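S.,

Sequence below, as promised.
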Amino acid sequence: MEEQLIKDRFFLIVTAIFLIFNTSVVSAQSDAQGFFNQANFYSQNGDYKNAIQFYTTALAVQPDFPEAVFRRGIMYAMIDDFDRTVEDLTAALRMRSDYRNTILRTGITFGNNKNYRIARALFTAILTVEPHDADTLIWRAMCSFSEGDFSQALVDIEAALRINPNDAGAVEVLDLIHQQLGN
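The prediction came back faster than expected:
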């Protein structure tokens, strides 16, 4: 009887500890989500610096929050802090590799809108994690080419062609670069 009483008390204590721990975890996650939502509000209204502060606060509460890291990286791009852009987007990719396509599409969108510096930062983040990504090398080369940085464009295109020598788009960009360089 006394042994059962000890087991019952032990079970109650373990259950109480479990409930307390889970409540604090849920509370931290909901706090982080609240800061994240506030950051999104500032972001949508063009207040990128406040958005960065709220994404940072969300990450202080919940460090394993890849969406907050990703969005903060985009906000850094919007204020031309490209080192932090690359740092955050690289971290987001390391947390969730499926962010690669999102970052790539976002970079392409910025490139199509002639925001080449932002696009290059996004492509650089992908290449930091996946240096042999031929498609991203081609996109970054096209941004470099559009900015007049033909030597960097050449480096990226040659790297892409070493990975995929039959890529017709890369060969075409290589020809354009050689024309610009007078080769």
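DSSP finds nine helices and no strands in the chain.

Coffee later?
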